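Review form for a predicted model. The reviewer records the input and the model, then writes brief findings.
Reviewer: anonymous (R2)
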Amino acid sequence: MGERPQPGNVALDWVIRARRYEYHLSSDTPLSAGVNLHLRPRPLELDIHDGIELGVLLQGAEERHYQDYVLRCRPGDVWMCAMWEPHGWRITAPNTRNVVSVFLPEFLGEEMVGDIPWLSLLAVPPDQRPTASSPQLRKQVLAIGRELEEEVQKRKPAWVCAARLHLLRLLLTLSRRWKPPALASGLPALRPHNLSRIMPAVALVHANPDRRVGTKEAAAACGLSRAQFNRIFTQTMRMSFARFCLRARLAFVAHRLLTSDLSTEGIAEEAGFVDASHLHRAFVKDYGCTPGRYREQGR
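Model under review:
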């Protein structure tokens, strides 16, 4: 069950438990997965990471917070987060257990779920992504989640391959009763082969989140003209390449605010912003608070 938070409450809640930003995924390790058991309720915490997140609530209750949307989860519910998308979580019941996977796009590759590319499910705003919308669907999702939990905990031979199949099954199950809003509005449908065409640019940003990667450099890495690259990237990721890079750099800034004593001016220079004012404007627009407020509350 999802809802939008009351106006004016987002910024303070969003930063009250900001805590981490992780670089742990690579082409050699495209998946990070774990099972979490929370014995008691926990306050809101913020995650920003360099992979796509897919989680299933197995028992208990929790909230998943986006900048302008709150998903209240019960067993069998699913949440999704795109790369470098700020999102928070709050445990609201004792003995809450979930299984969470964070992975790079190439981990699932060019797979289709039904007649749409799997990336379609994330290429829309959080409140438009598929959810377990019925008791029957929630039961199916919970069964897949428990199978994934077993693979993640026992880590038998080829468990990563098994986890990949469970994630695809989960996405397929959710997609069967979901119509992409982009298709309904007449925007171009996603093409699965386009993901592989832009992956060199995604990898380039992933490896260099602290600098401004230019469109010319990214297009060259993909073997495309700038016009082709801009069109394919925007169609596939549902955002411009410039926006994608900015979100990565802001995530890097958030990390540095919490893990260093550098001034805002120093971090702005480190992350390729023109000056502290430029960083301030971009940060407030995405995070709903100033860099100084973020650092103060996060620490």
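Findings: The mean pLDDT is 83.
Further findings: Residues 46 and 183 are 31 Å apart (CA to CA).
Recommendation: see findings above.
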